[in-house]
Recover the amino acids of this structure.
């Protein structure tokens, strides 16, 4: 158990819909990272937040957004969902920018 | 693109040492070598990291060559539960804007009875 929690574990929705994935970092960690893992793209970095502020962006679509709240939990919002958005979404956390610890992931299925 | 090169797959007999190689010939002086593994579709699990000295923890040992252009992850007594995809990643320690991990395809390790 890494200490990072993610909810929900599974999410099934339809194209065009909007979903929110939630991540709670390890106690004391200030940085949160989001990654997407699809069958054809592997694990890809989406976005990083540090103490509430966006720190880095990767291959995140404009339909996707994230935020980190004062209690340091983070949410990843995915809108206008397409079939290709079906993937595993992982959250990771670290104290500053050092070793990242990953959560168990949310499996999103878009039908 | 990932800065590392790993074999696509490897087999190991249960109870034997598993030695997973990684090439990172373009590594910079301030970049560490990190190893993670992913068991089936679980979240990636941190294993170990190092800069230039060999490192050991309860999970594995990391051997880094003197020129730092390659490394080997050693699982001393592999078990069936070590079957996973192993990722070798190079990155700066306190990443800041470079803090994200860049995953390649990794090595699929199959531990066989």
């Amino acid at each position: 158990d890494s200490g990072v929690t993610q909810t929900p574990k599974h999410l099934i929705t339809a194209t065009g819909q909007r979903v929110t994935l939630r991540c709670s970092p390890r106690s004391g960690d200030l940085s949160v990272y989001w990654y997407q893992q699809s069958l054809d793209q592997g694990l890809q970095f989406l976005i990083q937040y540090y103490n509430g502020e966006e720190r880095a962006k990767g291959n995140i679509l404009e339909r996707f957004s994230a935020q980190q709240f004062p209690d340091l939990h983070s949410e990843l919002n995915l809108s206008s969902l397409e079939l290709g958005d079906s993937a595993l979404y992982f959250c990771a956390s670290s104290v500053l920018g050092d070793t990242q610890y990953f959560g168990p992931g949310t499996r999103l299925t878009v039908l | 693109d990932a800065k590392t090169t790993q074999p696509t797959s490897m087999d190991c007999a249960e109870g034997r040492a598993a030695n997973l190689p990684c090439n990172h010939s373009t590594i910079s002086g301030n970049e560490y070598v990190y190893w993670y593994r992913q068991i089936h579709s679980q979240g990636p699990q941190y294993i170990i990291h190092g800069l230039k000295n060999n490192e050991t923890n309860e999970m594995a040992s990391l051997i880094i060559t003197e020129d730092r252009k390659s490394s080997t992850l050693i699982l001393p007594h592999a078990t069936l539960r070590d079957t996973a995809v192993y990722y070798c990643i190079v990155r700066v320690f306190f990443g800041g804007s470079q803090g994200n991990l860049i995953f390649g395809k990794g090595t699929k390790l199959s531990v066989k009875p």
